[in-house]
Write a structure and sequence with these properties.
Keywords: Hydrolase, Magnesium, Metal-binding. By secondary structure, this protein is an alpha/beta fold. A seven-stranded mixed beta sheet has the order 4-3-2-1-9-10-11, sandwiched between helices. Strands 5-6-8-7 form a four-stranded antiparallel beta sheet, covered by helices on one side. It has two domains: about 5-100 and about 180-260, HAD superfamily/HAD-like (Rossmann fold), CATH 3.40.50.1000; about 105-175, 2-Layer Sandwich (Alpha-Beta Plaits). α1 (about 5-15) crosses α9, α2 runs parallel beside α9 (about 245-260) and α4 (about 105-120) packs antiparallel against α5 (about 145-160). It has helices at about 5-15, 45-55, 70-75, 105-120, 145-160, 180-195, 205-215, 220-225, 245-260, and strands spanning about 20-25, 60-65, 85, 90, 125-130, 135-140, 165-170, 170-175, 195-200, 225-230, 240. Bound molecules: magnesium ion.
Amino acid sequence: MSLPPPLAEAVGSFAALPRVLVATDFDGALAPLVLDPDDSRPVEGGMESLRAIADLPGTTVALVSGRALEPLRALSGATDPLLLVGSHGAEDSRHPDGLALDEEQRALLETLDGDLRAVVERHPGTRIEEKPAGRVLHTRGLDPQAGAAALESARALGERHPALVVTPGKEVVELAVAHVGKGTALVALADELGVDAVFYAGDDLTDEQGFAALADDPDRERAGRRLTVRVGDGETSAQFRVPDERALVEVFRAIEAARREQRPAE
Ligand SMILES: [Mg+2]
């Protein structure tokens, strides 16, 4: 199967660069969507192709997913040197504890834990949900007045700690120590790796955030060399579109073949 000529040409230019990041969403891009998310598996040939790309010099491969890190690892079967970015960027397989947080953010998370425990003590019946980069205070089941008072206490923590990202919801307040999202994660990873360009493929709204962030990459040269692919239907800001997961594997194969051909000396 051959790619449409414009996509084939873009793959050729991308593959010729010294250092590249090849990243993809998992569900709906690499793995067909299924009724039970626990039954999700990569499409035939997908992981083999990504492993082959990851073995090439100057080439990093990453799976970027909204799933938590461990299920992503188990379902994909990914092993080193493939990188895993989970929970929309809050988790990263390169960190020993899986958390993609710097020291300041880790310290803030600890402080937040203490402050929230105090909120729960003052407002009996509230509960704390732990997320990789933050905490959520839940007030469901409380009478409305008690609930509102508890939520106000949690929101006030955002004033005490301005670095917290506060997201109020219905009977919840989420307090996060880091702005996460696939876009933020992709650009941060590209910076860290010092790559010349990023390939990213995905099928959903959160991936659109990735496509947009790569287009708005503060490194304007890198932005101009990006290669973004939407898998399946739906409005998109990606540069290219493929119909399904199998077609994405063809793109991976083309990247691998072009890179072997164009950068054989390394
Ligand atoms: Mg998806």
